[in-house]
TrEMBL record:
Any one cellular-component term (Gene Ontology): membrane
Keyword Ribonucleoprotein: no
Gene designation per UniProt: srlA
InterPro entries linked to this entry: PTS_IID_sorb
Record bears the keyword Signal: no
The protein's name: PTS glucitol/sorbitol transporter subunit IIC
Highest taxon listed in the record's lineage: Bacteria
Transmembrane segments: 29-47, 67-87, 145-168
Species per Swiss-Prot/TrEMBL record: Lactobacillus xujianguonis
GO biological process: phosphoenolpyruvate-dependent sugar phosphotransferase system
Pfam families in alphabetical order: EII-GUT
Keywords from the UniProt entry: Membrane, Transmembrane, Transmembrane helix
């Protein structure tokens, strides 16, 4: 009987600890993410959706714009998963590469911009807790992770271009490299 009581106590303690953590998030992380989302939506409204779409279409001609700047701005302004929608303005050939760069960026930016991927913020918080225990500044790590992420996400997007070319060649599929600016 003692084992059952100990297990039941542990089991309830698990949920109590989860409740305490959730209450902490409601008081700290959730308001931060909410205010950042409101700010981003207000900024997009001020800039205008048509201008945002025009910028995305213009980004199709340059790999740095396609795989570094556009994913950064889309993730910053729209968050995950909405940032992936900016790829709709790119030519078919570049869509897989944009998705690769954008999906990776939504992870490498969480330390500095938690509104981009709030569902995975707990991963960053776990890493940050370890860094804080060492007495180090978490923002130093967050900025480095962001900068390395920008470069690696660009490389990942560009490498996906080569993968797309290989698959197209092997399958005989021809994908357009021209943006359809008439939409």
């Amino acid at each position: 009987m003692k084992y059952i009581i100990n297990f039941a106590t542990w089991f309830m303690g698990l949920f109590q600890a989860g409740g305490k953590q959730f209450a902490n998030w409601v008081a700290t992380i959730i308001p931060l993410v909410l205010i950042m989302l409101v700010f981003m939506n207000a900024l997009i409204a001020l800039i205008g959706q048509k201008k945002m779409n025009k910028f995305a279409k213009a980004s199709a001609s340059n790999p740095i714009m396609r795989y570094m700047i556009l994913p950064f701005l889309a993730a910053f302004m729209l968050g995950n998963p909405l940032a992936h929608t900016m790829g709709k303005f790119l030519p078919e050939y570049y869509k897989p590469s944009y998705y690769a760069a954008c999906a990776q960026f939504c992870h490498t930016s969480n330390g500095v911009f938690p509104h981009i991927n709030p569902a995975e913020y707990f991963i960053w918080m776990g890493i940050a807790a370890g860094v804080q225990k060492l007495g180090l500044n978490t923002m130093d790590l967050a900025v480095r992770y962001l900068l390395v992420g920008l470069i690696m996400n660009f490389i990942g997007g560009w490498i996906t271009d080569f993968t797309t070319a290989y698959v197209c060649k092997k399958t005989g599929i021809k994908l357009s490299k021209e943006a359809n600016l008439t939409k």
